[in-house]
Amino acid sequence: MFVTPRRSYQRLCALVALCAGVLLAGDAGLAQAPKPAPAAQGKTTSDQTKSVYNRRIHPQEPPTNINWDERITQLLKEEPGDIIITAVGDMIFNQKISDLQDPERRGLFRIMQEADIAYGNLEFSINQHPELQRPFYNFRADPEFVWEVAGIGINLVSMANNHALDFGPEGIRDCLKALDHAQIRHAGAGLTLAAAHTPASVHVQSRKTQFSLLSYMRYWTNRYRSTDPNAPSLATIDPAVILVARDDKVESVEGPLESDIKTMEDDVVMARRHTDMLMVALHNHDVSHDRVYGIQDHTPPTDHIMYRRALDAGADMVLGSGPHVLRGIEIYKGKPIFYSLSDFIYQYRTPDKIPVDLIHQRDLELERPTNVSVWDRRDQWQTMEGVLVRMTVNDGKLRRIQLIPVTIDDEGPLYGVPKLVSDERARQTFERLQQLSAPYGTKIIVKGWYAEVEL
């Protein structure tokens, strides 16, 4: 197999991350699972012996006896001129996982490490200012953690999301600096509003095709809209609400703001002048994640507008994230829209990284005693399943889309860490994804442990 310098660089990053872990933690750096530690934030009001980190409800899955090395080696075979892009969904990431040795996890990271471009949505902040935490979400890692992000293979991220500003302007400055230091390209956030709308460019060595990424967030309020174009900002598509009369009743209809859609289209047109293949990342929160709204696995009709208009303006694909569950796949005028890739790394409950007494962190509409922590609650299974998309580009054209199902541990010390799944779970994921994609007429061809989207 031909190995590009990019892949050698990612292997070096993985080695740096591994060595750093060994130096800092001795033999613990090679442990199969990070050891949960009590929260360092002080006295807690909940019994952590019953938390999802320390108590199992479901029995552990038996070993699959799958030869993942052989399977992945077959998957990674390439033709001359192939450029490989992988894409995953939301990453909330704060514990070292690149050194895990179980085949289901090591093999998953290998798929990204062997890609030329490995994309994910960076839904946490990399900064050295824990004291600047704004909301109750504490999704942060120290600057040196950027090498762990690179170590699992990631070299391209979107940053236009609702956690990029959790640590204010200084948090964004630190994060951008860390990503630049590790040569991880980024889009959607910048030191100015213009920079947030500037595409990230990636050139694969020894190949002529130039790749770029634009990133935007669509939220149900305008709370993240830039108020100072000369200050750290995000690229946003804000909501608009109009009143309509139906059957003698007045209803409000919400959708994306037209001027923001036009700005995105202008960005796409400008970016096309300097790139061969343009990707657009859309982080979509059309409503809150309160469970009263149920499983948000369908894209509202008014939100289809922004995905399709990005392609109409000249983008080559749209990578969706935000709903924290899978949504359907559409081939629109020959170009793919992934409405949501779901979660990929979901370490939002790590006890020694995040205060355990954030009892009103989620599901505000549900009553609970004041001493019952969010840590005792279980995530819905749809939140803990996603896909890794592996795309092959050759001669400037998208030739193949492969879908690799992923599941995330929902209890125990590896809570939030992804892995490859058994063949039976793969079948179930593909059945669900086919149902979600059926309204778009998309054909998903199952090939055992992975599937392909018919172009």
How does this model look, in words?
23% of the residues lie in helices and 26% in strands. The protein contains nine helices and 23 strands. The protein has one domain: Purple Acid Phosphatase, chain A, domain 2 (4-Layer Sandwich), CATH 3.60.21.10. With 455 residues, it is α/β, with parallel strands linked by helices. Helix 8 links the parallel strand 14 and strand 15. Residues 20-44 and 359-366 have low confidence and may be disordered. Strands 1, 2, 5, 6, 18, 19, 20, 21, 22 and 23 form a ten-stranded mixed β-sheet that branches.
Shape: globular
Alpha carbon gyration radius = 21 Å
The N- and C-terminal alpha carbons lie at a distance of 25 Å
Per CATH, the architecture is 4-Layer Sandwich
Q: Please report the first level of CATH classification, the CATH class.
A: Alpha Beta
Characterize the biggest β-sheet.
Answer: 10 strands, mixed
Oligomerization category of the chains in this entry: single chain
**Taking all residues together, what is the mean pLDDT?**
86
Helix content: 10-25%
Please provide the count of β strands.
23
Topology:
Elements: H1 5-25, H2 68-75, E1 83-92, H3 103-113, E2 117-122, E3 125-126, E4 140-141, H4 146-151, E5 156-158, H5 168-181, E6 185-187, E7 189-190, H6 193-196, E8 200-203, E9 210-218, E10 233-234, E11 236-237, E12 239-246, E13 249-256, H7 258-272, E14 277-284, H8 301-312, E15 317-321, E16 329-332, E17 335-338, E18 343-346, E19 385-394, E20 397-408, E21 418-420, H9 423-437, E22 444-446, E23 451-453
Parallel strand pairs: 1-2, 1-18, 2-5, 3-4, 5-6, 9-11, 9-14, 14-15, 15-17
Antiparallel strand pairs: 1-19, 7-10, 8-9, 12-13, 16-17, 19-20, 20-21, 20-23, 22-23
